[in-house]
Predict the structure.
Amino acid sequence: MEHPRDRRHAVRVRLLPVLALVAAASLALAACGSDSSGSTSDPAALVGKTYVSDEATDRVVPGGGPLTVAFGENGQISVNGGCNGQGGTATFDGDTMTVGPMVGTMMACPPPHDTVDAWITKLFGEPLTWSLDSRTLTLTRGDQRISLNERVTRAIAGTTWTVTALVRNEAVESSAVLDRVKPTLRIGGDGVFTGFTGCNQMRSDATVTGSGSDQTIRFGAIATTRKMCAPEVTDVERAVLAVLDGDVTAEVDGDSLRLTNVKDSTIGLRLTATPATEGK
């Protein structure tokens, strides 16, 4: 005769496979309801982020890019492809992004960056389809596909920075000479500063204080080699050394660095991490 306890045990055994199936189904439903890839269609995920073109996109950007697209509050968007910065307002309807008329600076840029502003105006002149998957933003229209990666702000020390523009009398100047000679700056983890003025090598000590986007660099007396260069290159060298005289404020934004001399706030440098594609 079967004992009642044996019947309860048999029922429990028969229920275990059923419970296992229910649990598995619940997990499967949870997985379907979650976004394990990190993709989203919520434009709020873009706010406060800056995205930089990947190498494939750089090849289609006049001048070779990079193309940067930054999103602010209330739909504000700013775009730069290596010449002037342009800004406007973006509206979103599902996966469609529409950017209103953009306004920007009017700096004349040397080839090959002299046509990129018109290219940007055309790109954002009509609605684009957008998607965000983890740190990758993709913009498409027809067979045109622009891929950009979220930019990560770099540390000042340990990064090699290339001067892309001079600030003199509060005016930002770029030139073919500057593009050719490419002055560079680097502060090592040991506080040793090395660089290239565009004409001569330079060396000193440097101390970085502060954190985040706004920091200060104190440069010691800078020693340089004594090579003679063409007048236009020497002019670049003098401008670089003037900015690096003493204390300098430093504003970091991803791969971009702005330096302003503390004693003379009308002079400064605009720099980008070298190469700009690292750390996107």
Remarks:
- Confidence is low (pLDDT under 50) at residues 3-37, 276-280.
- The first strand starts at residue 39 and ends at 40.
- The chain is about 20% helix and 40% strand.
